[in-house]
Amino acid sequence: xxxxxxxxxxxxxxxxxxxxxxxxxxxxxxxxxxxxxxxxxxxxxxxxxxxxxxxxxxxxxxxxxxxxxxxxxxxxxxxxxxxxxxxxxxxxxxxxxxxxxxxxxxxxxxxxxxxxxxxxxxxxxxxxxxxxxxxxxxxxxxxxxxxxxxxxxxxxxxxxxxxxxxxxxxxxxxxxxxxxxxxxxxxxxxxxxxxxxxxxxxxxxxxxxxxxxxxxxxxxxxxxxxxxxxxxxxxxxxxxxxxxxxxxxxxxxxxxxxxxxxxxxxxxxxxxxxxxxxxxxxxxxxxxxx
Length: 290
Hints:
Layout: E1 2-6, H1 12-22, E2 26-31, E3 43-47, H2 53-60, E4 64-70, H3 76-83, E5 87-96, H4 129-143, E6 148-154, E7 156-158, H5 166-175, E8 180-181, E9 191-193, H6 194-205, E10 211-214, H7 223-234, E11 245-246, H8 260-264, H9 276-286
Parallel strand pairs: 1-2, 1-4, 2-3, 4-5, 5-6, 6-10, 7-9, 8-11
Helix pairs in contact: 1-6, 2-3, 3-4, 5-7, 5-9, 7-9
């Protein structure tokens, strides 16, 4: 298939593009051109400004793609600027668990319904992040019902390639004796591995599933468990201080996402325990503790 990827040059987007290439698709990546990629001649490239309707029209006005995988749709205007200026059979948006208001264990897709939510055309800075992501989904499903569309909702995506370094913050702080101001030590946190996130998007792009769909690894972990593991592996103790650096997962409530739709469609996510401790081992080495 002829597939357009918006984004795809870093983090889980790289895994997605590699999976699409491996599966034999004709892939074009559209970015601002600021981040180099290692795809070589395996992809075509288009330079765009994602938040500009004029740029979208100039880049895509006469083009058709079988599938568009959009990692860069943050608000309703982002969706509008693209889908008003491109022809595609299928559209896969990377969304977020942030669309859910009430966080708890086993959240199902029905707990945020973009088909009935009030649509507001907005830009990225008009509302807080959860609301602009709700509006992006709402625009997709309400304003473009003729498009065969999917919104993939992920919790926290992490991996060695996580440029946000959220989990690394805790490991590095313990290894190097940096005081941390953290809370919610016993809250259950869900994750999805960056490689699995990218591979899942590539996988769902080839299916006929439509609508919102959750994706996360099986199981959760607490900050207490994370910190205990690093302390045992390094023989160092976490330093807690109200004056310390604020933890990236402060304020998180226990939750995870029900992945029945993914399972029923034939996809299985791995157990969180299978890889998260290995990731922490890599972060320990990165922090200077061999």
